[in-house]
Amino acid sequence: MHRILLIVAIVLSLAAAALGYLNRNKLVTAQTSIASIQGERDAAKKAASASATELKALKEKAALAASDTEKNAAEVADLRAQVAKATSGVADIQKQVADKDATIAQQKTDMAAKDARISELESKANSAVQAPKASEDLKKQLEEKEILAASLETKLKDQDAQLASLKEREAQRRNKSMRNGLEGRILAVNPSWNFVVLNLGDRNGVVNNAEMLIKRGSQLIGKVRITSVEPSTSVADIVVNSVRSGLSVQPGDTVIYSGPNEESENKL
């Protein structure tokens, strides 16, 4: 009987040991699984944090890009307004010239009519020898007409002088030439629309369609062509294919006029 109980006790002890071993393996496996899950969770948190940082940086870049776009749009609008103003000034001068031409033509027509009337009155005066009183009236009318004709002629001369002055100003504006060696700098660059703003204007002798060299120190960058002139500034297009490879036009670059377009092209 004692032997049987001993055997049973041994069997139970072995079973308990086996069960404990199995439970220990399950515990180790569970701990390993938990550690793995925690590692994955930490990695996911890091990835989420990195994504949030990247998203914030992208949002900041987008905000800066939007700000630059608005600034460029404002600059373009301002420069277009300057171009429109310059164009309007030329149109006003042309309109004044046309108005003066029309006024002079009308006054010449009036003069011709007055001359015809004077001739008619003179004819009547010559034929009114037998009517002294009527002749006297006709002479007075003739004198009045002559005074009116003289006044109209004076006005016509004044209009001719004004027209000549306007035409001379327009010719000077069109024929004005720039001084060789005229130098300035670039205030702003708009690469999207391929134009620049210069610190030179009409007061410096800048004229439309003139080409100027762009330099940075002693290095030649390219060329620009004047498209609009204001009193102290001007707008110029960057000449296509004139900018050297690997370079770009920047604010602060120097612009120099070195003669007509042909000379500038030969130097490039």
Descriptors for this entry?
268 residues, alpha+beta, Elongation Factor Tu (Ef-tu), domain 3, 3 helices
Which residues sit in consecutive blocks of at least 5 with pLDDT less than 50? 262-268
The total count of strands amounts to 6
Rg, Å, rounded: 47 Å
Q: What's the mean pLDDT score?
A: 80
Strands side by side in the biggest sheet: 1-2-5-4-3-6
First-to-last CA distance: 120 Å
SSE topology string = HHEEEEEEH
Shape: rod-shaped
Largest sheet features: 6 strands, antiparallel, barrel
- Per DSSP, the total helix count is 3
Structural class, by secondary structure, is alpha+beta
In which range does the helix fraction lie? 55-70%
Estimate the strand proportion.
5-15%
Give the topology, please:
Blueprint (H helix, E strand, L loop, with lengths): L1 H126 L4 H44 L7 E8 L4 E4 L12 E6 L2 E11 L4 E5 L15 E3 L4 H7 L1
Antiparallel strand pairs: 1-2, 1-6, 2-5, 3-4, 3-6, 4-5
Helix pairs in contact: 1-2
Walk me through what this model shows:
By secondary structure, this protein is of the alpha+beta class. Among the domains are: 85-175; 183-267, Elongation Factor Tu (Ef-tu), domain 3 (Beta Barrel), CATH 2.40.30. Helix content is 66%, strand content 14%. It is built from three helices and six strands. It has helices at residues 2-127, 132-175, 261-267; strands spanning 183-190, 195-198, 211-216, 219-229, 234-238, 254-256. A six-stranded antiparallel β-barrel has the order 1-2-5-4-3-6. Helix 1 runs antiparallel to helix 2. The longest helix has 126 residues, at 2-127. Mean pLDDT is 80; it is low at 262-268.
